[in-house]
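INTERNAL AUDIT FORM
Audit reference: QA-55
Scope: verify that the stored structure record matches its stored sequence.
Auditor: D.O.
Record contents follow.
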Amino acid sequence: MGTDVFSGIDVSKDTLEVAMEPQGEKMSFAQTEDGLSLMADFIQSFSPCLVVLEATGGLERAAVATLAVRNLPVVVVNPRQVRDFAKAKGILAKTDKLDALVIAQFARAIRPEPKTLKTIEAQQLEAILSRRRQIVHMLTAEKNRLHSAPGWTRKDIRLHIAWLEKRLEKIEKELGEMIRKSPVWRVKGELLRTFKGVGPVLSQSLLSDLPELGSLNRKKIAALVGVAPLNRDSGKFRGRRMVWGGRAQIRPVLYMATVAAICSNPVIGAFHERLVKAGKAPKVAITACMRKVLTILNAMMKNQTPWRPLTQNMLDMKHSC
């Protein structure tokens, strides 16, 4: 049974809807510490070959971490992929239980490749998850005490609750960063690699060293990386525009990817050819291409849209960034 079982999980703020394919079994769990543990027990009992969740703005973090530390083959995918799959099958209705079943069917049909965590990564993730669980339990206990506490201790309890909430927020960020950098997180890397010329090295560099990708406009992201032309003027003097500063560790990787894109990506290749014919120096032309590649990738991440070398796609990206 193990090699043939696929699990889909639809994540919401309060619940986790789980569906098993091809069995068609469904189960609902609360989005709580106990619910997460029960959910993992239920899925593990089927020995699935693949567990798929959609990226849901961070709501999936605890579920992904819980499954990953149990060495279950878990993958996070782009929700757009699952919706396109559902439309292709003629499934237009949308409920949480139906979504979980569609995700399981997507897992069975598409089979995105799962990646297991290294031992050290699993230990780190388990430690953070354990600490998160402890803080949640302490918060619950303090909030329960607050209702029956005498007046002279309530101020101290409220202060402790506020401190615990800040710690929980910090641990949630750490958990999110670990998951995003781990092999189980596929959404952003897969999206970036749809652009011809972007390989694993650049996608990993952008995800780890440029988390702002997709959240800034094209001018700010170019300046952040250090590929935006900056003025060098003083009085009547007008100096040559130059690029400098920014995140130097990204530029060499972006440069190599851009050189590859000039050869393999028709849009970047045509853009480079126009610049060269216009008399631009080779370094200036390549830098401009680097900026264009970064702008396109930024728009792709912002819209969560894979690369499609069509005129309309380019126009959409132009307006979005």
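Auditor finding: record pair retrieved intact. Residues 119-181 form one domain.
Action required: none
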